[in-house]
Design a protein that fits this description.
Helices cover 53% and strands 9% of the residues. By secondary structure, it is of the alpha/beta class. Strands 3-2-1-4-5 form a 5-stranded parallel sheet. Helix 12 links the parallel strand 1 and strand 2. Helix 6 crosses helix 8. The chain is globular and about 65 Å long. The two termini are 36 Å apart. The relative contact order is 0.09.
């Protein structure tokens, strides 16, 4: 592992390095994961090979790459600051050994890699640290502003998945505000900025709307959701406003958009999502479910034309239903939780 080979002299042992590195395996990371770190490191290597940076600066940028998104929550606005603080904690715990002046450079690169904080960069950071911050941000964001439009599109879709808990129109507005902020910095070629702007502004996402009462949302539902996520840019969970939930859906799926609707579901699907190609997602356990769903589709189609997609449960529990899970909870909560998804590291208890 090259990143560890470069940084191993700074870490107490491989385990302390790996504790940081494994953070990038969190299930809600689609873009900000290990592939992103390695992409940054490959650009750092190129700068080192072309003698744009020296060996110490390379190590500073490598360490910043490892830590800059170590603490990451799409709902947080302090990820870079929190990640910089984590690096400082590891220095103080002697998990990382660096000369104080080098560690301070790493801390500043991580903290100010947030372009929103960059404008507040204090004067005393001028010189090498500012140069390194500029280089690092360029490496961090370059995958969105380059000639390879295929890769740009792929990265945009990964970011969209990380932020799919945000309504799409709000996401696009906030994302374009961020692009404006980057344009003012002058870090990237204006033609690539314009290319990205036009793509985001004109993109029409494919949206799956997975509907049900979900009382509770169980592992069979999660199986369907994960299949849908491989098909659509964004999957929205829709449930009747009148439905009760023994476990709030948002507790089980904190990084998905959960929408409540009144009245007929077909009205909700055909009127409440004007910004995408919408398909209704339905889950099937067996042939009986298929027969029922086809009849429901025909009824909905008579009311308003809409598209449907069907996905089978692929877990080992096709017999599981919300009714069965509710009954289990009445008699044995531990047995009930066996069927509740734990995709997001134990947020449900």
């Amino acid at each position: 592992m090259k990143i560890y080979h470069i940084l191993k002299s700074y870490f107490k042992d491989f385990e302390t390095f790996d504790m940081v590195y494994r953070r990038y395996d969190e299930s809600f990371r689609y873009y900000h994961n290990k592939s992103h770190i390695l992409s940054i490191c490959s650009m750092i290597d190129l700068m080192a090979d072309e003698h744009e940076i020296n060996a110490v600066q390379r190590d500073v940028l490598y360490m910043a790459a490892l830590y800059h998104d170590a603490i990451y929550d799409p709902k947080s606005e302090t990820n870079e600051r929190d990640s910089a603080d984590l690096f400082t904690e590891d220095i103080e715990k002697c998990n990382v050994h660096m000369a104080p002046e080098i560690a301070q450079m790493v801390f500043e690169v991580i903290k100010y890699s947030d372009p929103r904080l960059y404008s507040k960069l204090p004067c005393e950071c001028s010189g090498a640290p500012r140069k390194l911050i500029d280089l690092f941000i360029s490496c961090d964001l370059r995958p969105f502003f380059e000639e390879d439009i295929g890769r740009v599109i792929r990265n945009y879709k990964l970011i969209l998945r990380e932020y799919q808990f945000v309504p799409y129109d709000i996401f696009v507005s906030a994302h374009l505000d961020f692009v404006v902020l980057l344009e003012r910095t002058g870090w990237f070629d204006e033609r690539f900025i314009n290319q990205y702007w036009k793509y985001v502004e004109g993109y029409i996402p494919s949206i799956g709307v997975y509907a049900g009462s979900f009382n509770p949302f169980h592992i069979g539902h999660m199986s369907v959701l994960e299949q849908a996520e491989r098909v659509f840019d964004k999957v929205i969970i829709a449930t009747p406003a009148s439905a009760s939930h023994m476990i709030p859906i948002a507790d089980i799926l904190p990084y998905h958009e959960v929408r409540e609707f009144e009245g007929l579901f077909v009205d909700h699907v055909t009127t409440d999502y004007p910004y995408g190609y919408v398909t209704v997602v339905r889950g099937l356990r067996n042939g009986n479910d298929l027969e029922y769903e086809i009849n429901m589709q025909l009824v909905n189609y008579d009311l308003k034309e809409s598209d449907f997609g069907y996905m089978y449960f692929i877990t080992n529990y096709p017999h599981v239903s919300s009714t069965v899970v509710r009954d289990l909870f009445i008699h044995d909560r531990t047995a009930g939780f066996k069927y509740i998804p734990d995709r997001y590291n134990g947020v449900v208890s």
